Structure formats: structure tokens, C-alpha cells
Amino acid sequence: GAVVSQHPSWVICKSGTSVKIECRSLDFQATTMFWYRQFPKQSLMLMATSNEGSKATYEQGVEKDKFLINHASLTLSTLTVTSAHPEDSSFYICSARVEDRKYTGELFFGEGSRLTVL
Amino acid sequence: GDSVTQMEGPVTLSEEAFLTINCTYTATGYPSLFWYVQYPGEGLQLLLKATKADDKGSNKGFEATYRKETTSFHLEKGSVQVSDSAVYFCALSGGSGGYNKLIFGAGTRLAVHP
Fold first, then answer.
1. b/e map of B88-102 (b: 16 or more CB within 10 Å)?
2. Separation CA A6–CA A114 (nearest Å)
3. 3-state class of B82 per DSSP?
4. Of A43, A46, A59, A60, which to mutate for an interface test with B (greatest number of B Cβ within 10 Å)?
5. Nearest Cα to Cα of residue A3 among B47, B84, B57, B45
6. Rounded to whole angstroms, what are the CA distances from A3 to A28, A86, B27, B43, B103?
7. Residue B101: is its pLDDT beyond 80?
8. Which band of pLDDT confidence, cut at 50, 70 and 90, is reported for residue B8?
9. Chain A 32-61, CB below 8 Å of chain B: which residues?
10. Are B102 and A95 an interchain contact pair (Cβ–Cβ within 8 Å)?
């Protein structure tokens, strides 16, 4: 299967600082990547759809100025949590869709990045 | 809108017990259905999928059959192992949200003890 990698896998930062999380597709090109947030013992919530070369599409209720998404190339999307606060602490997971018929509808997920804001 | 409902956990079983995790869905059109597994501290991994009615997805001893008449995609395994302890998510795509969006259930935590 296709491989998606995230970095860092965990990060601790002080309140008020910004944190950048990278999501890379290692063996395929991804025109579309997705960012999810997972609260403890809950399901994944789609935050935004990242499109290569254009602005991200944010889900309702997600602050676009708070969660900056950049998809500068076909293999890299970044999520920057700006002016992070403790309530932003969460597990962030990216995924990518493979443009291949045999993977119709299937997304491949990164390992996730656990953010802790002190 | 589209939605996925799965049984609440945690599900606690002894090793070699039979597992069933129920999943039902609501969607327009003809969605694809998936089961993802999340091991502690890791991201999600696709466990199995089915893209049309009556298809059976299978992998690592797990099975699920796409039942359009009951809008269900229940996950089963005949004999669980301690290593199967994880959170299992049922999901769909291709409904009203299109294939770009995966709609997840709330997840079911499985704990298998020796």
C-alpha cells in the first residue's frame, strides 16, 4: 500500500507558540490531503481538505487563521497551529488519497502527531 | 447527512473468543465501506474494505460483509488474539460527501486478555 508519513510524532510546546506538522506521501503523489483531529477516546474529526497549489477547504467550525494549511507540492502538506493554547492539545492525523482506480475511496493515514500545549 | 454508528466499547474478550463489532450506516448513493484499526500511539491502518453490496472484505482473520438491505458492515473474527487489542473504526466514503470524505464512526475499543 501507499505510505504517508507525519513529523513530528509528538511535540510539546508553550502556550502562545506556533507548531508546524508535516505530512508527506512517500511513494506516490497526492493532489489532495486531509487533516483530522482526534480527541481522547473519540472519533476523528475532519478539519480541512488540503489541495495542492490552492487554498485549503475548511470544515465548519474550524478556524482557518488558527490552523494554517499549506500544500506546496504533490508530496507535502503542512498544518501550522498558530498561537497554540492548551485546548489545542490533541492528536492530529493526516491522510492522502491515492489517484489510482484500485484504491477507489481509500485513504492512507499518517502515524499521527500528538500535540501537548503547556 | 451521511453517518456511521458502531457499538460502544470497550469490548473485553478472552483470547480465542469470537468477536463481533456492529456497524450500521446511513448514506445516499452507493458508498464504499471500511474498517480501520488504530493500535496504541499509532495512526489508522486500513483493515479491510468493501465497495459494493454483498462484497466481503477480509484481512488478518477479520471479515465484514456489505449488507445493503440492513445497511450494515459488521466486523467479525473467529478467534481473537491479545495483539488484536486496538480501537476499530467503521467508515464510509462515496455518499453525499463524495469519495473525498471519509465519515467515521465513534470507534470501538477492543481489549483482549490472555
1. bbbbbbbbebeebbb
2. 11
3. helix
4. A43
5. B45
6. 8, 31, 29, 12, 21
7. no
8. confident
9. 32, 34, 41-44, 46, 49
10. yes
